[in-house]
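Hi R.,

As promised, here are both runs. First protein below:
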Amino acid sequence: MPSRTSQKSEARNLLEAERARQAKAHRRRNLMLGAAGLVVAGALAAGITVAANSHTSAQTATSAQGPAVSNAALPGLQTSPAPWQPEYANLPARLANLNLSPNGDESFHIHAHLVIYIDGKPVPVPANSGFSIADQLESPMHTHDTTGVIHIEASQPSDTFTLGAFFDIWGVKLTATQIGGYTTQGDQTLQAYVNGQPVADPAGYVLKPHDDIVIGYGSSSSFPHTTNFTWPQNE
């Protein structure tokens, strides 16, 4: 089984390959432009860079104390039956609303483990949630494989790294009473447990190192409230 390091390296290699491909295409287009066109393109690029830097600075300044995010403001959240694949088309827009601490030098690096049950049946947490090669994005919250391990890699800790933020990045709606297309009705309820203890608002829970998280929809007796997950060495 590939190590976490090799999985992470492979994902980043894919992102770098896409960046290199786009850079090559960009250089080819530049060679076809006239001198006047290059001047205009350079001016536009400079303006875009300044605007992007200004946005990044503002986002970084507010990220550690970002406001609560409403699901209604986030596009592309899936409200369909399980299973759910990562939703990439609207990932950039969702990330822009989440105000997460940026990746940076990854001074803050923790992992949590998530298991989901719907009517007693396990639902996979997919690989590569939080990575978008097309948009050259690597979210500070992401997965590398289907083990359910959530990676949080950022420049600093933040109370924005919630379980709800991970679901928003994945692209699945999660509230206190709903996961995807399943909503609390009668004795069919949404329940969440962290390290064996019930959590009333799973979306607002701030993830901590080696959290053992179980989310279940159905009756309380239809799924286990803890897992026997064994953490790999040095993780």
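And here is the second one, sequence first, then its structure tokens:
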Amino acid sequence: MELTTSVFGKVNGVEVNEYTLTNSKGVSLSAIPYGATLTKLVTPDKNGNKATITVNADNLDDIVANRPFYGATIGRVAGRIAKGQFSLSGKDYQVDINEGDNMLHGGPEGLDTKLWTVDVETAKNEGKLVFTYLSPDGENNFPGNLSLKTTFTLTEDNEWIIDYEATTDQTTLYNPTNHVYFNLTGDVKQSIANHRMKLKSKYYATLLDDNLPTGDLVKSEGTPFDFSTYKSLSEAIHSDDSEIKRLNGLDHPFVLEQDEGVKGSVYDPESGREVFFDTDCNSVVIFTHNGEVDSMEIDGESIREHAGITLETQTLPDAVNQPGFGNIVLQPGETFRSTTTYTFGIKE
């Protein structure tokens, strides 16, 4: 496993390095400690041509100024918390809101805005980037000193494994994800509408106008949210479903079947690239980058709508306020552990 390092930029006068792991099959993963953020994933297509298959900012200044979430580690709680309010152990909490009346992706100073510490471990068959951060009691008004470790592993089997660990000294919440956007064409200027997706999911969460879940989990069979067999994303994105039309695409949690094996996959028929994912989380949030971003550029151009698709594995959003959505409470003496694996291949 090859390791290279270069300077990605500076934040608050501190130099931030980009670390790149490359395996013998030509798959490479790059990441920075700011936000424990994936900055690039490169894989070959069916003809052996290598290209970046993720949507990422070109530089650290854009990440800091625009907070696009591209490839970032999200927390303490991924998704939205209704009105930024919840109760733990009989005590009511109001955390910082940053999207209307709600908290989004950990609040205005979420984990994606923090400079983590990084350690590098390389061996013959894998390389690891081990990110650690202590989120202090009261950060974004969450209780508890939260000790975090997020590990990115690249293997010779073309796997990107994300391992999350956390401990706390007070009862608190933790529900992390990585906000990676895939575009398997290798060209961010191309839409992902022709990508095809399959999910091991029978239910999805319906949304309110502010994108909070209604609390209802609805059967997807026969709807635009049915990806039980491979289906073009365009069939969903351009459907007449009222929620999809309002959002200009998908931004929905899908409930994952909890049996063994791969939970879903996305592939691009033109390049042949395919990504599979497996996770111990109970849901994946699929977001199809539903608007153009003109506040920052990639390769000198604005980032177009439907430039990428997320596979954000997590406990169902707003679980602390939604009965039956899952447990995101972390107690002192417990260790939070969760693993998500993305595997890259070619579909002939």
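A quick note on the second one: The radius of gyration is 19 Å. Let me know what you think.

Best,
J.
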